[in-house]
Amino acid sequence: DSGVTQTPKHLITATGQRVTLRCSPRSGDLSVYWYQQSLDQGLQFLIQYYNGEERAKGNILERFSAQQFPDLHSELNLSSLELGDSALYFCASSVGAGWNNEQFFGPGTRLTVL
Amino acid sequence: QQQVKQSPQSLIVQKGGISIINCAYENTAFDYFPWYQQFPGKGPALLIAIRPDVSEKKEGRFTISFNKSAKQFSLHIMDSQPGDSATYFCAASTNQGGKLIFGQGTELSVKP
């Protein structure tokens, strides 16, 4: 158990809908990362927050947004869902924001868009 | 230039054998190269990591070999065990932040 929690574990929804994925980082970690894992794209970095501020952005679609709250939990919002958004979404956390901080991954949220 | 290419896609090794997974990169700004292990239904977990100022790092049965001039690095698993059966990902990041660029993954199966 990495100490990172993600809810829900599974999510099934329809095209065009909006969903929110939630992540609680390990105690003491200030940085949160979101990754998308799919069969065709592999593990792709989406976005990083550090202590409430956006720190780095990857190939995150405009339909997706995220935020980190004062209690350091983070939410990833996915809207106007398409079939291709079906994937595993992982949250990771680390103490600091830099490259030399080990990232601890949560168990993931499996999103299925029908 | 942001890609990390990983091979093979899948690997079958007999128990006690050596598993070797290779990765190559183009971006010379990459400064940190971790390997992650992922079991089915779980998130990736850090296995071992290396920086380009060393050519090899060993932790137990796991060794990273790093060739800076060739822009390649590899994971060697000595005395492979059935419990090592998992998907392995190489990754890279620059020293500008924590964003990890992952390889496509290698599904390792160790046969008893």
How do the strands and helices of this protein lay out in sequence?
The complex is a heterodimer of chains A (114) and B (112).
Chain A: E1 5-7, E2 10-13, E3 19-24, E4 31-38, E5 42-50, E6 53-57, E7 64-68, E8 74-78, E9 87-94, E10 104-105, E11 109-113
Chain B: E1 4-7, E2 10-14, E3 19-25, E4 30-38, E5 45-50, E6 56-59, E7 62-67, E8 72-77, E9 86-94, E10 101-102, E11 106-111
Parallel strand pairs in B: 2-11
Antiparallel strand pairs in B: 1-3, 3-8, 4-5, 4-9, 6-7, 7-8, 9-10, 9-11
What does this structure look like?
The complex is a heterodimer of chains A (about 110) and B (about 110). Chain A is mainly β. Helices cover about 0% and strands about 55% of the residues of chain A. Chain A is built from no helices and eleven strands. In chain A, strands 2, 4, 5, 6, 9, 10 and 11 form a seven-stranded mixed sheet that branches. Chain A is globular. Chain B has strands at about 5, 10-15, 20-25, 30-40, 45-50, 55-60, 60-65, 70-75, 85-95, 100, 105-110. The chains are: A mainly beta (about 110), B mainly beta (about 110). The interface of A and B includes residues 97 and 107 of A.
